[in-house]
Specification:
Elements (H helix, E strand, L loop, with lengths): L2 H13 L2 H8 L3 H15 L4 E3 L4 E3 L1 H29 L4 E6 L5 H14 L4 E6 L2 H9 L5 E5 L7 E9 L1 E6 L18 E5 L5 H13 L5 E6 L2 H9 L5 E4 L2 H4 L5 E5 L7 E8 L5 H12 L2
Parallel strand pairs: 3-4, 3-5, 8-9
Antiparallel strand pairs: 1-2, 5-12, 6-12, 7-10, 7-11
GO molecular function: DNA binding; DNA-binding transcription factor activity
Pfam family, one: HTH_1
Organism: Flavobacterium hydrocarbonoxydans
């Protein structure tokens, strides 16, 4: 039995007319009749009742039609899954993100991608913007989530969203109620990102403080936004963080005041290689763009 036998059978079973089925299959009627006879002989079952007036399915034919249709649906599903695996040759898709990105969206992305591409192994890496750019150029990751700027001729970027900035402080130690009180923080200890780890972000934080009329006394540094927030919670200083961080930290000990007067925003972008046309990359980017 060959696949063509099943295709010919389905055509006749759906049309219940050999002439129409032959036209649908772009073959003549005699070869079609011979193929159906061969199929019946092979499975040793009569599938059609034929007379001069009409063609009908036997009970065996009705059952066979149902099962063959199911078989073709399964074959189509297998073909699609195989195509998706082939689009990512290694069977692995690597996504990098910076620590200051709201993690719920990343978790939802992975769950969504696993459902869409069940045979691909998805891996997450927390990496700084500069290291992501280098890793992407070297083919070590497939998709990056970074804060701009991105300076690389090999990379294409898509703006995901723009993020503001907020002061974060320990409410048991610091008493401020609004943006107008920011200058009161000029003598406080600050916790910032390490200048070598995130130079652009470090400069932005200094610029923010300058706008409010002071130079921060940076005593502690970290390369991870969650560590910075934890240091603030532990009373070791205050910090300025992306406003989205407040979504992840509903701790009663922490206070957040958004800095709106300065009107300074940071671009969060999705990056991939310019020659990357994989369906997985497109699906991931489309999903995240719909989340904003």
């Amino acid at each position: 039995m060959e696949l063509r036998h099943l295709k010919y059978f389905l055509a006749v079973a759906e049309e219940l007319n050999f002439t129409k089925a032959a036209e649908k299959l772009f073959i003549s009627q005699p070869p079609l009749s011979r193929q159906i006879i061969e199929l019946e002989e092979e499975i040793q079952a009569r599938l059609f009742i034929r007379n001069n007036k009409k063609v009908e399915l036997t009970e065996a034919g009705k059952y066979f039609k149902k099962e063959v249709k199911e078989l073709f649906l399964n074959l189509e599903s297998v073909t699609l899954k195989t195509k998706k695996i082939a689009e990512n040759v290694s069977g692995e898709f690597r996504i990098a993100y910076i620590s200051s990105i709201y993690s719920a969206a990343i978790s939802e992305l992975i769950q969504f991608l696993k459902a869409q591409f069940p045979y691909v192994n998805f891996k997450l890496f927390e990496i700084s913007t500069s290291k992501q750019i280098s890793a992407l150029e070297q083919g070590k990751i497939d998709l990056g989530i970074v804060r701009s700027p991105i300076k690389s001729p090999k990379i294409k970027s898509q703006l995901w969203f723009q993020d503001g900035f907020s002061v974060v402080f320990n409410k048991h130690q610091i008493s401020i109620n609004s943006e107008k009180d920011i200058l009161k923080l000029k003598d406080e200890t600050f916790v910032f990102f390490n200048k070598d780890y995130a130079p652009h972000y470090h400069e932005v934080l200094l610029e923010l403080c300058a706008f409010y009329g002071f130079t921060p006394k940076v005593v502690h540094e970290s390369n991870n936004i969650n560590s910075i927030v934890q240091l603030v919670k532990n009373g070791l200083g205050i910090s300025i963080v992306p406003s989205t961080i407040s979504k992840n930290n509903q701790d009663s000990a922490l206070g957040f005041i958004e800095l709106k007067e300065v009107n300074l925003l940071t671009d969060v972008s999705l990056i991939s290689l310019k020659e990357d046309h994989s369906e997985i990359t497109k699906t991931a980017i489309d999903f995240l763009l719909k989340k904003e």
